[in-house]
Amino acid sequence: MVSNDDGIKVFHLDLPARREDIAKLELGSAVYLNGVVYTAREGIYKKVLDEGLPLPVDLRSISNVNFHCSPAAAPDGRGGYNVGAVTATASFRFSKWIPRWLERTDCRILIGKGGMPADDYKKVLAPGGAIYLTTVGYGTGALLGRGIKRVREVHWLDELGIAQAMWLFDVENFGPFIVESDLDGNSLFAQHAETINAGIEKLYAGLKPPALHRYGETDNRKDEVM
């Protein structure tokens, strides 16, 4: 672990990640990964968890890091693929599958965009010895792509398409990612949400209600999904 010029702690993890190394990660710190990272999202979850199909590869022996993303992959003309960038997707949409996925694969690190419900960290990820890493805002897809050195394997590509297939990437200095949850189930976003929301309420105080024109729209922030 080192600290950069901004005082942010930076960690480099060799994969598969060991529990003792995961335990050292602190909320808000930056993480870079070295080893094998795989992708699995709703298409894979439905096949393996809902339909009962066997995993196409023994993930337990290869990697314990699952990246919720869509890779910009293209054939390299030599039977393989080049990945110029990866676009993270929102993980909260996959919440219902995560408990079974952790048990089935021994996944210990989930990566995605925007985090998951705070209760999932306390009730699912932490008891399963897993944490969540989030991407650093928008526009970092090409930066992350630089960390992908090789497509090791790809499964169910023809059936599911590029975004939903299971990709296995050999990665080096893959990141940066931000630690959103830790092994105690604490959430960086949740810790700051109350402060941020209080500021938003003050910002809108005294303003007239917005003009709503579409069915189902509301100005009640308690009705928001995100």
From TrEMBL:
<dbReference type="InterPro" id="IPR004647">
    <property type="entry name" value="Fe-S_hydro-lyase_TtdB-typ_cat"/>
</dbReference>
<comment type="similarity">
    <text>Belongs to the class-I fumarase family.</text>
</comment>
<feature type="domain" description="Fe-S hydro-lyase tartrate dehydratase beta-type catalytic">
    <location>
        <begin position="11"/>
        <end position="191"/>
    </location>
</feature>
<protein>
    <submittedName>
        <fullName>Fumarate hydratase C-terminal domain-containing protein</fullName>
        <ecNumber>4.2.1.32</ecNumber>
    </submittedName>
</protein>
<dbReference type="Pfam" id="PF05683">
    <property type="entry name" value="Fumerase_C"/>
</dbReference>
<keyword id="KW-0456">Lyase</keyword>
<dbReference type="GO" id="GO:0008730">
    <property type="term" value="F:L(+)-tartrate dehydratase activity"/>
</dbReference>
<dbReference type="InterPro" id="IPR036660">
    <property type="entry name" value="Fe-S_hydroAse_TtdB_cat_sf"/>
</dbReference>
